[in-house]
Amino acid sequence: MVNIKKVCDIAQKAGAAIMEIYQSPFTVEMKSDDSPLTAADRAAHVIIESGLQELYPEISLLSEEGRGIPFDERKSWRQFWLVDPLDGTKEFIKRNGEFTVNIALIEDGFPVVGIVHLPAAGKTYYGGKGDGAWLEEEGSPAVMIHSRVPRAGRGLTVVMSRSHPSPELDDYLAGIDVAESISVGSSLKFCVVAEGKADLYPRLGPTMEWDTAAGQAVVESAGGKVVDLAGNRLRYNKKELLNDSFIVSA
């Protein structure tokens, strides 16, 4: 198994580079799929790729900002890193602080290690199969976190995307007893469920595999679940890297 603390260090170094750019004027480009790209995305990718290759040269890497790797090349991968160097670029551009660095280790199609680092808040969530889930705040020792068990008679706290609302989500929530809703960006939504501050995060819209893998590992390590609408755990390294709709639950 990998040394998760060393991988957290890499995520935090990438976060420091992101914050340098965040605190300065920056330009925004648009990729071919109309999603935004900044120098921070590129800088974080370079730090993560070089750091992981130095520590674990035998493990392949798939990153949102890396080269496109054909399925014929990666379909035989039993183990690989799945990385989103800057998840929540829209939040980064809005300067609301709700963006993350995501690093996950995938084995046999499922995430077994996940790191979600929030550079603007100085927080790092991480978890691994059999190791539980943890929250490390800058300057303080890590503390174990757990998803919470909803209590009968108490409405659910639901976390939702700040940048991707949808009519489908409104329809879904109409059938649920919602006591409170929280809107946040990026993979922070997974972490809110993992640390017991929300019960449910439904995502009824498109995401990519690198958007969800690290958050899934943290949630599952904290005792929660991440499943598609048929109740199956989200799988990774599919031919098409697009996720189905999914539900994150405590």
The largest sheet has its strands arranged as 3-4-5-6-7-8-9
Tell me roughly what share of residues is in helical segments: 25-40%
Number of domains: 2
* CATH homologous superfamily heading of the largest domain: Fructose-1,6-Bisphosphatase, subunit A, domain 1
Radius of gyration: 17 Å
Mean pLDDT: 93
Brief summary:
This protein has about 250 residues and is of the alpha+beta class. It has helices at about 5-20, 40-55, 70-75, 90-95, 165-175, 190-195, 210-220, and strands spanning about 30, 35, 60-65, 80-85, 100-105, 110-120, 125-130, 130-135, 145, 155-160, 180-185, 200-205, 205-210, 225-230, 240-245, 245-250. The chain folds into two domains: about 5-145, Fructose-1,6-Bisphosphatase, Chain A, domain 1; about 155-250, D-Maltodextrin-Binding Protein, domain 2 (3-Layer(aba) Sandwich), CATH 3.40.190.80.
Description:
It is a single chain. By secondary structure, the protein is an alpha+beta fold. The chain has two domains: 4-144, 2-Layer Sandwich (Fructose-1,6-Bisphosphatase, Chain A, domain 1); 156-249, D-Maltodextrin-Binding Protein, domain 2 (3-Layer(aba) Sandwich). Helix content is 30%, strand content 31%. The protein is built from seven helices and 16 strands. It has helices at 4-22, 39-55, 71-74, 89-94, 167-174, 188-194, 209-221; strands at residues 29-30, 36-37, 60-63, 79-87, 100-107, 110-118, 123-128, 132-137, 143-145, 156-161, 178-184, 200-203, 207-208, 225-228, 242-243, 246-249. The strands form five sheets. A seven-stranded mixed beta sheet has the order 3-4-5-6-7-8-9, with helices on both faces. A hairpin with a 4-residue loop joins strand 6 (110-118) and strand 7 (123-128). Helix 1 (4-22) packs antiparallel against helix 2 and helix 6 (188-194) packs parallel to helix 7. The two termini are 26 Å apart.
